[in-house]
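Mods, move this if it's the wrong board.
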Amino acid sequence: MTPAPTAPHSTPARVLWGAALGALTWPVDLFCAVLALLTARRRAPLAPVRAVVTLHRRRTARFLDWSDGGAPVTSRRAAAYLALRVGMSSLSMLVLGLLAYGLFGVVVSLASWLFDVRLTVDAAFQGDGLSTSDVLVLVPIGSILLYLDLMGLFGVGLLDRWTAARWLAPSRSERLEAQVEELTVSRADLLSALDAERGRIERDLHDGVQQRAVALGLLVNRARRLAGPEAAGSLLLEQAGREAEQLVTDLRDVAWRVRPTTLDTHGLEPVLRQLVAHAAVPTVLDWEVPVRPPGEVETTVYYLVAETLTNVAKHSGADGAHVTVSLDGPAPAGDDRERQDAAVHVVISDDGVGGAEVRPGHGLAGLAGRVAAAGGTLALASPAGGPTRVEVVLPCA
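Not the wrong board. Structure tokens:
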């Protein structure tokens, strides 16, 4: 659903014009209302009905200070709106007819008074025309009738705007669904942008900082060899060489934790095996996925397992952990239906003290948000005394 465009600020004159223009479409409204009622079971309205509804949308946006931003309209809503439009068009035609009759009466009365024309709209004045006293009596009466007629037309315009808001605008539940969908998409886009930024940082660390650290270590070792073992600063140069080597190792570990390059090139399985091999708590990996999952699923599973194993090492006091990655449903070979039915099932368990819970601002809450953004679900079971079990299902669609 697109945002509603800003409608021009409506004035009483614009509302009167909008209501008057709406009255002129009475025959078309009647025809399309009957057509819409006969085809109300259709999901989308017919082309003539849609064209008339679009016309009224533009009219209400231009003259009545309302717009729904082009929200989709079903056949039922179009039928209900046009049925009410027929009634309002009829009322508008009646009000305009009274206004035209009143203006005709003013012209005839002025002609009878000024030029002694023997035409009048009132049988009481036939024969002798209108006198000045008659005109003075008719002026306040005509002014009051004109005011009431214009107010009636203005009221029809307001009713027209209310009808459009009731039947053409999305309902509250539809607006909420659209907002939820937009928030879900924006959160998924945010995570994609975050993953892309992580990849950029990893490349900068690998191709920039790490290479400079390697070059620094080479320069230190070269300076140590040139100075010789008997030089005064040889011990310091040797220590600097070891620190440079440790710096390169640390940079590689940091770059790998930010986002491993092999995740794109080799897939999720070798990355998880390497992650499990370097885990602080002895961990076993069971890989039961026959095909490579989609890239966004691989990224989500990697961060899920990495963050969960970090939490296990920090808080669980466990002696061991177990990671199982399996595929539910048919392998997503490329068919949209198969992708929709397939899901990656991840279970991470440990034999620690338990007591873990999803709390705002903590690691598990962030993981739950990432999984939800990917369209998946996260279930946590961690009773006091353990064990702890994190179960996640991620659709491949």
